[in-house]
Amino acid sequence: MTASQRRSTWPATTVVVVVVHVVLALLTVIILAGVWHLGADLWQIFATAGAAGLLHVGAVVAHRRPWVGYAIGALAMLVLVLTPFLGWSPNMLPSAVCFPLALWRLTSRVSVRSSVVALAVAALGIVLTELVAWARLPSDTPGWTRLVEGGLLMLVVGGVWLAALLVRRRHEADRRAESERLAAAVADERAGIRRDLHDVIAHTVTVMVARIEAAAVTTADPATRRELGDIAEAGRDAHQGLRAMLATLGPATVAPRADSRPGEVPISLDALPDLVASAASPLHAVTFAEVGERRPLSLSAEVAAVRAVQEGITNALRHLEPPVEVTVRLRWTPAELAVEVRDDGGKALRDVGSQGTGLIGIEERVRTAGGTLSIDDGDDGWVLRARLPTKEGA
């Protein structure tokens, strides 16, 4: 609920509560005026009116201090019980409704054990009320009327307590569900951060290492060659450490985000030529070709296409000994975009340790965008193919 919604809700609730209190108080005043007209003593009227006022105060106080408000209400009910009245119990006054209201607020805020104690206090008060009323019962009035009244009061108090308990448990279940939803959202966000860090940083580190290795091969100075080799090895170690660190941020599988974060450069097919060019070096021939007329893509499909190219180039440069040739090809039809990243197998395969989870993330991106992903190991190298629907073919 937003702040504006709270501002519009609470005043209406407050108005309803105030109206209820005013109506109950007016009904009580009318009844007390009638009883005084029938011959009740003035002290009885004042005692009953004071107790009724305490009941209203207790109901209001119970909103913020449940036990204090409930104690005030219980004291007021005790005053009503001990005040003799004409022909019926004073706890049947309209203002006596404030006592079950205080019980409701107490039950909804304290522990179940404490609310049971409050219920027991209310039940004891009803028993005391009926015993006092039975002792004052006129000789011509049957005693079963006290049992009926006591039973009805027990039903009212017990029903209020049980209803408040059920409402409280429902609210607790709602809060638990909301907490679980927030925890899942946090986990998804952590996994999204992990995936994006892998896509961006791993590609950049791999390209840097490839360029350093190319520089080491082309230099004529042995000392410089050794230094560049050490730097390249340090870069590969940093890549392995990065992957180990990112594994602590969340699961490898998560529904990809289709949009970029605030402050990030939007991912676009227009960035592919620069992405391909940045990966090229004297030992890494990376070329780009695009065939067919471009068609409109959904944002998730465009992100999947760019990330697929990025991951394909990263894997080729990371897993293959140079020299390496990588070809990136986009082929457009009215119904789909076919993305292909093909390498020639390089000089040999590198031992880079455990496999990463980048391809898993790419597969999820492609599947979420409504496409398919395949990876083939041919005689002359690896081929990554992604087929993504255009808006016309979706």
Shape: rod-shaped
Low-confidence stretches: 1-10, 251-266
Rg result: 39 Å
User: Order of SSEs, N→C?
Assistant: HHHHHHHHEHEEEEHEE
Overall mean pLDDT stands at 77
Strand order across the largest sheet:
1-3-4-7-6
Distance between the termini: 36 Å
Helix content: 55-70%
Q: How many domains, in number, for the residues? A: 3
- Number of continuous helical runs: 10
Total strand count, please?
7
Q: In what range is the share of β-strand residues?
A: 5-15%
Structural category: alpha+beta
Biggest sheet character: 5 strands, mixed
Salient structural properties:
single chain, 394 residues, alpha+beta, Heat Shock Protein 90, five-stranded mixed β-sheet, 7 strands, 11% strand, disordered N terminus, ATP binding
Could you explain how this protein is built, in words?
This protein has 394 residues and is an alpha+beta fold. It has three domains: 12-136, no CATH class; 179-249; 269-389, Heat Shock Protein 90 (2-Layer Sandwich), CATH 3.30.565. It has ten helices and seven strands. The protein has helices at 3-37, 42-61, 66-82, 98-107, 112-135, 144-218, 222-246, 272-279, 299-319, 358-368, and strands at 284-291, 320-321, 324-332, 336-343, 348-349, 372-378, 381-389. The strands form two sheets. A five-stranded mixed β-sheet has the order 1-3-4-7-6. Strands 2-5 form a two-stranded antiparallel ribbon. Strand 6 and strand 7 (381-389) form a beta hairpin. Helix 3 packs antiparallel against helix 4 and helix 8 (272-279) packs parallel to helix 9. The longest helix is centred in the middle third of the chain and has 75 residues, at 144-218. It is rod-shaped and about 120 Å long. The protein starts with a helix and ends in a 5-residue tail after the last strand. Residues 1-10 and 251-266 have low confidence and may be disordered. Keywords: ATP-binding, Kinase, Membrane, Nucleotide-binding, Phosphoprotein, Transferase, Transmembrane, Transmembrane helix, Two-component regulatory system.
